[in-house]
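Backbone shape codes
____________________
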Amino acid sequence: MPLAFDLLPIAGFTGLMAAAAVEDIRRLVIPNAVVAGLCVLWPLHLAATASFTIAGGLGAAGCAAAVFLVGALLFSRGLIGGGDVKLLAAATLWAGPASTPALLVVMGVLGGLLTLVLLFSARLRAAISWARTAAVSSLPVPYGAAIAAAAVIVTLPPNLS
């Protein structure tokens, strides 16, 4: 069976998204090298795709730019991390215009679930240790994990069929 070159960028995408999720969970940091790798692999993915069009590529880049600008505004207000903004923009690049709404919805649902799990476990720990719940109000959430999972969920199925 010959090697399917169109699967190589997809494998890289999946691996880099997994690395982003793991690093965000471990250190609350999404390395710039991971985001750069996603951006470098994207044109290779487009070139390997049989249905590639320049309009489709420009549309994906436009969506990613719009998501980045909105994310930068949220970052400037202290509402989202800078690594999350960059990772979401890169994920949008891969999702393209047609799948960007699905990416945002799945990311919101997964991020909400992640936040609830972390909040519940923090409250449980506080209740067990009889500590005040003030620390729960500043609970850090590794939202990059939700972004990465949503990107894989939305991007892989169309590319593997």
Observations:
- The two ends are 17 Å apart (CA to CA).
- Residues 7-160 form one domain.
